[in-house]
Amino acid sequence: MQDIGIFYGSSTGNTESVAKKIQEEFGADIASIIDVADASVADLEKFDNLILGTSTWGIGDLQDDFEGFLSEISNANMDGKKVALFGLGDQYSYSDSFVDGMGELFKVLEEKNCELIGETSTDGYEYDASGAEKDDKFVGLAIDIDNQDDQTEERVADWVAELKNQFN
Ligand SMILES: Cc1cc2nc3c(=O)[nH]c(=O)nc-3n(C[C@H](O)[C@H](O)[C@H](O)COP(=O)(O)O)c2cc1C
User: What pLDDT, on a 0 to 100 scale, did the predictor assign at position 16?
Assistant: First the structure.
């Protein structure tokens, strides 16, 4: 497997902590974590395998730093890259916009010439609506540290095991 770049945007540290767990599952020798607040087009283009993670703020908005990073994604050459998404949210307090930020990222990446991988089942979550659903699945990994942190380890481990079979 080629190197993996894990890019995250995090306001209170939750998405950052999940990025670190994902890195641990792959191994720090192969996976690097990068805060999008400090990242550029060149950082993105270094990796053929990308994982992008954002939390959701406001009502269904991308995390602030990730909002600022969208122009870098738009300008990056993503041809042939495999990209997996993860999103942090709170399914009980924001039941109509659960992990919508991940859905916003998906919309931007759908326009790029990359392959999106890592969709997951919505089973085990309780919410009314999510902009990160497509064909009854999440477009990436949904993590809810606020309400279901006891499931975070297992969700991350299962997802990374799937990605190991799919990355370049
Ligand atoms: C003011 C506020 C607005 C939020 N809006 C949403 C939302 O619309 N949808 C959602 O799923 N989670 C929402 N959340 C929950 C956060 O996404 C969640 O707590 C996340 O773990 C924060 O991750 P971070 O520390 O990496 O930014 C909101 C939280 C706050 C405090």
Answer: 98
The structural domains of the chain, with segments of one domain joined by +, span 4-166
Task: Kindly report whether the global pTM for this prediction surpasses the value 0.85.
Answer: yes
Nearest 10 degrees: CA dihedral of 25, 30, 33, 34? -160
Q: What is the CATH number of domain 4-166?
A: 3.40.50.360
Q: Report the nearest atom of ligand 1 relative to the CA of 54.
A: 26
Q: What is the pLDDT of residues 8-47, one digit of tens each?
A: 999 999 999 999 999 999 999 999 999 999 999 999 999 9
Rounded to the nearest 5 percent, the helix, strand and coil shares of the chain are 40, 25, 35
Read off the pLDDT band of 119 (50, 70, 90).
very high
AA identity, residue 151: Q
How many angstroms separate the alpha carbon of residue 27 from the centre of ligand 1?
28
CB 77 within 8 A of CB 61: no
Q: Which atom of ligand 1 is nearest to the CA of 144?
A: 21
Spatial distance between the Cα atoms of 111 and 55, rounded to a whole number of angstroms = 21
Question: Which helix (H) or strand (E) element contains residue 26?
Answer: helix 14-26
Alpha-carbon distance 140 to 121, whole Å?
Answer: 9
